[in-house]
Amino acid sequence: LAFSFLILGSSTASAQASADSGLSAATTLYILAGFVVFTAILVLYVSVVILRLLRFIVKEEAAKKAELAGEPIVEEESWWSKFVDKANDVVPIEEEDTIMLDHNYDGIRELDNHLPPWWKWTFYLSIVFAIVYMVSYHVIGNMPLQTAEYETEVALANEAALKRAANAPVANIDESNVELATDPADLAKGKQVFLNSCAQCHKEQGEGGIGPNLTDDYWLHGGSISEVFITIKKGVPEKGMISWEPVLSPTQMQNVASYIMTLRGTNPPNAKAPQGELYTPDVDGAEEEEQPADSLQLSQVN
Predict the structure, then answer these.
(1) Which residue segment(s) compose the domain that 244 sits in?
(2) Which of 7, 73, 103, 174 is found 20 to 30 A from 164 (Cα to Cα)?
């Protein structure tokens, strides 16, 4: 124990030295604590082995003395054997005739064994525990039930979430001030969100599947950055697209909307047919008139 305290007392200096070598103070403390525990277990194991060896030597000396004196060797019952016998209260085999019942079935006799004391005391303790539990939880009410514990944990989690949100930088991005992200790092983040959350319906290259094609000039709900942002934010529940506002942060929605804008004109293979209205970006301050995809295809045919 003194050795363990010395090790723990020197943990501060060791932690400082390990910090210089790249290890944190917590890691160093865990290593020292593990070493102390391992040392204690090792010492305990060696002590048990030595005690058993000494006990064996004493028994051998006693047996030699009894043999020289011509006395019978009597094995002293260990305290553990005494405890087990008392806890089980088992009638010795040579005394089973005293508890034999008159019941006889095809030569099979029955013994009138009592329940072991350990079993009875466990049963009594379970009754006491049940009474204390019922009084504490259902009568006095000084201990919370599972529902109350759950509500408490949820409240603590919500409080922690609010503290994290208060300390986190606020991203005041919405459809009124969303901007087209051009930084490669932001577009890479938007691509990752797209692959994780959007590719199931729009395919990995945006060619469209269950959802519409995102690489052409036709849009069902508008093709500007703010309109794409709104579509991601609010979703299209009647067509099976959920609102991503509870899942994605405003910055993530801006990044994925900006990435979607970069898919325009990529012409991936097996692209889905155009849907919605033709959208032309505002170049000189005025957008070209939107034209339905079906009417455009009809005019081209005529």
Answers:
(1) 184-282+289-294
(2) 174
